[in-house]
Amino acid sequence: MRERFPVFDLHCDTAVELSLQKKPWNSNDLHIDLDRGDRLLHHIQVYSFCCVYDEKGLPLAGYAAEERFIRALSDFYTQLDRHSDRVRLCRSAEDLIACTKEGKRAVFLSLEGPEAISCDPDRLDELKDLGFVMTTLTWNNPNLLAGPHTSDAGLTDLGKAFVRRAQQLGIVIDVSHLSEKAFWDLCDITSAPIVASHSNSRAICGHSRNLTDRQAKTIFNFGGLVGLNLYAPFLSLDGKADFDTVRRHIDHFLELGGEHHLALGGDLDGCDRLPAGFTGVESYNDLGRYLLESGMEEELVNHIFNNNAVHFFVQHLQKSRVG
Ligand SMILES: [Zn+2]
After folding, report:
1. Torsion angle in degrees (nearest 10) through CA of 7, 8, 12, 16
2. How far apart are CA 161 and CA 185, in angstroms?
3. 37 near 71, Cβ under 8 Å?
4. If you placed Cys at 43, which of 28, 37, 54, 300 could pair as Cys (CB 3.0 to 4.6 Å)?
């Protein structure tokens, strides 16, 4: 039986936690560190910056959100420099391919909550220059662009302008946390595939953070990705989850046609309750083995763990460079 699996994970909150808790990236007690990533066959990770709530979970906006974002990003650039022998910041398909050749791990940046750039479409150029390849439209709070998953608010005119500018620049729109109304408003105007970086199936776990079947099918039909979230209450409403619970979400998304669109989006370091047996990024090896042992084809595990996301980002980033 295989011991090590390739992992491309679409969402973690590790970067901000490293900054807030002043912890080293190479080895720490968070869910992700470089040493434990080495236990995987390879580790490609989207590091997301969510700077719109404080330590007590209260909303941050305006200067407070921007200040937290600048500090966390500055700290993360320092970490990238310090570990440049092991990691590489990827802005393009070429960067991703070079990482594989050099045996380095690929790091992508995404924004969760555009309050950090004052929800301003004109600041998306700045975001791209900083190395970001993806952004959500909201976190859990309503903002100038759209409503979150707990609301009925759709996409505002500013939200539509934000989406258009992001897609012109080749920045992927991430619909995790978005309201259903805003999701459908987005689908009316999108000119590029969309991603739900860390959202599960609402048919399996009826939480508003999860995707309805119609939403998931639409993302698949657009050529986008859905990343499986490992936060236990998004896997099962009673918060009790194990690898079999994860498998139920996978099986349901596969029934909807997700074979080439399903990916990982663990929400690691953004959540405090993981499935039984999952302790951190190294546990993806255990999940991979479990899926093989429970009868899943190896090729399909590789698609979900790595290939689908690699294919999407190579395609998307190549397209964005040309356009
Ligand atoms: Zn999130």
Report:
1. 100
2. 12
3. no
4. 37
Quote the pTM value.
0.97
Pairing of strands 87-89, 42-49: unpaired
Average pLDDT over residues 103-118: 96
pLDDT, tens only, 226-270: 999 999 999 999 999 999 999 999 999 999 999 999 999 999 999
Chain position carrying tokens 């899926």: 291
- The separation between CA 51 and the C-alpha centre of its own chain, rounded to angstroms, equals 15
> Distance, CA 252 to ligand 1 centroid (Å)?
22
Q: What is the mean pLDDT of the chain?
A: 95
**Given this model, what pLDDT does residue 322 score?**
45
Whole-number Å distance, alpha carbon 216 to ligand 1 midpoint, is: 17
Tell me how far the alpha carbon of residue 17 lies from the centroid of ligand 1, in angstroms. Answer: 13
Ligand 1 center–CA 322 separation, angstroms: 30
| Mean pLDDT, rounded, for 40-56 | 93
CA separation for the pair 71, 50 (Å, rounded): 12
Of 193, 174, 197, 231, nearest to 320 by C-alpha is: 193
How far is ligand 1, taken at its centre, from the CA of residue 295, in Å?
A: 31
CB 124 within 8 A of CB 162: yes
Angle (deg, nearest 10), helices 180-189 and 157-168: 50
The residue among 6, 129, 96, 133 whose CA lies nearest residue 314 is 96
Say how many Å lie between the CA of residue 138 and the centre of ligand 1. Answer: 9
Tell how far the Cα of 198 is from the centroid of ligand 1, in angstroms. 7
Residue 102 CA, ligand 1 centroid: distance in Å: 31
pLDDT for 187 beyond 70: yes
101 CA to middle of ligand 1, Å? 31
Q: For 199-233, how does the pLDDT look when each residue is reduced to its tens digit (9 = 90+)?
A: 999 999 999 999 999 999 999 999 999 999 999 99
Enumerate domains of the chain plus CATH numbers.
14-322 (3.20.20.140)
